[in-house]
User: What shape does this take?
Amino acid sequence: MSGCSIEVKMTESDKGRRTIGNALIVIGAVLLVAIGGYYGWTRYQGQQLRANLRSTPAPGAAVTTSASPTIMPSPTAPLSLTPVPPTATATELPQSPAVTPAQPTNTATAPPAPVSAGLPVRIVIPDLEIAAPVVEMGWQVVETANGPQSEWDMDALKGAVGHHINSAPLGVPGNIVISGHNNIYGREFEPISLAWDDDNRTRVDDLTDSSDILNGRTIQLFDAAGQQFDYTIRAFYRLHDTGVSLAQRIENARFMQPTTDPRLTLVTCWPPWGNTHRLIVVARRAEGS
Assistant: This one.
């Protein structure tokens, strides 16, 4: 008895689905390779940058901060997550809570004399090869499940970093706050994200770590007239900011509150390929600047 065979003919619809399926497999494979390559390249860049920073210590690198932030006297006004409209002077802004960023305990220099200046228009960090324009950054009102809320307008930062409009200007005591993206648009603050040394960090608390890898490095700010203001980095923090309580987010926001000393605070995200954490760079005005 001879055998028989059954021939199955594919319809045009079946052929189309198979083609689409094969194309999706190829696209998925390409995406996996691209993501893996980006992740590997970013890790390599970070390793190279950190090795270079460790091999070329900054002049002021001997200044270190303690593992726990220093408690500084502050008024009792409550802290709000909602951005605060700008006012005539920095002293009129809502004041910081009881806990503020760490300060070096082995320096006791008088703050530099006030210099007539305006708003920062450019930032340069030579050791991180950062050179970017600075624009004024406001906020926008968005609808949430809890009603309208104000959020900083980070989408406005395309090719620039943002000076918080309710933070201090140049040349006067106060906290100048500048935020920038680490992995979208111009990625101006990507080098800060790459510089975080996760292998040599100090635990501050369950949600906060610190690193000394940037201590002593210089940050330069320029106003529209070209006047230069130098700041020396004193602390570098990583704060867990995803999936934390509202109380913790308020605690994290303490670094952006007004201060009475001439200070510069930079804010960006970490890791270089994500944004689960916030990185905070705290710098003090350099003597004679």
